[in-house]
Specification:
about 180 residues; alpha+beta; 3-stranded antiparallel beta sheet; 3 helices; about 45% strand
C-alpha cells in the first residue's frame, strides 16, 4: 500500500521568529483531496542530566502555551552551523552552568509529527561539573534548577506534575538504566 501524499499547492501562512506555518493542499493515494497545516521548527536537543549522587537536573520555567510553570530537562534549538552535539553542550552551559564529562546520544524523534517537523535528539549527560566560562542565557528565559531523585521523578510523573513529553521520555529512560551518573 502506498501512503505518500502528493502536494498540489503549498503556501506560507505565517513566518515568525521561531516557527513557520505552511498550508498544503494534497492528494492522497486514493485521489481524495486534503489540507495539511505544518509548523516548521528548527531541530532541537534535550539532555537528561544525572548527577553522581543520582539526581535528575530539571529546569523550572514559565511556559506560555501550557499557561503555567513546567519542570523540564534542559533543551533548546540547534542553531545554524551547529551540530546537535554542540547544541547539547551549549544548552547545558546556558541553562544549568554545568558541563558533562560524558555526553551520549540516546534517541532522535519527532516531537509531534501530526503537525510539526521539529526533530529532537535526546542525550544523557553524566560526570557533571561547573563550567569555566558561562555563556549568556537567553534574555527571555527565567530559569531555576530543581533536582529530583528517580523515585521522586517517577512519583511526579504518575501524579501529573511532570507533563513535558521529552522529560517523561527521559525519566522512563533513566528508570530503565538506573545506574546512570554512578558509572562515572
Amino acid at each position: 500500500m502506498t501512503f505518500e501524499e502528493k502536494i498540489d499547492q503549498q503556501q506560507t501562512v505565517y513566518q515568525g521568529d521561531l516557527i513557520q506555518v505552511e498550508r498544503q493542499q494534497v492528494t492522497l493515494p486514493d485521489a481524495t483531496k486534503a489540507v495539511r497545516e505544518i509548523v516548521h521548527h528548527q531541530a532541537a536537543v534535550a539532555v537528561l542530566m544525572v548527577t553522581a549522587d543520582q539526581h535528575l537536573v530539571l529546569v523550572k520555567q514559565w511556559r506560555a502555551p501550557a499557561n503555567g510553570v513546567t519542570l523540564e530537562i534542559p533543551a533548546g534549538k540547534v542553531e545554524a552551523g551547529e551540530t546537535a552535539d554542540q547544541a547539547a553542550v551549549r544548552e547545558l552551559n546556558e541553562e544549568t552552568r554545568l558541563k558533562a564529562a560524558h555526553l551520549k546520544r540516546v534517541a532522535g524523534f519527532y516531537t509531534s509529527p501530526g503537525f510539526t517537523d521539529e526533530y529532537m535528539t535526546l542525550y544523557v549527560a553524566t560526570g557533571l561539573s561547573p563550567v569555566q566560562t558561562a555563556l549568556p542565557q537567553d534574555p527571555d528565559e527565567l530559569l531555576r534548577l530543581v533536582k529530583l531523585d528517580l523515585p521522586t521523578a517517577i512519583t511526579q510523573v504518575a501524579a501529573g506534575k511532570l507533563v513535558d513529553a521529552k522529560t517523561l521520555m527521559a525519566v522512563w529512560y533513566w528508570q530503565s538504566h538506573p545506574t546512570l551518573g554512578a558509572e562515572v
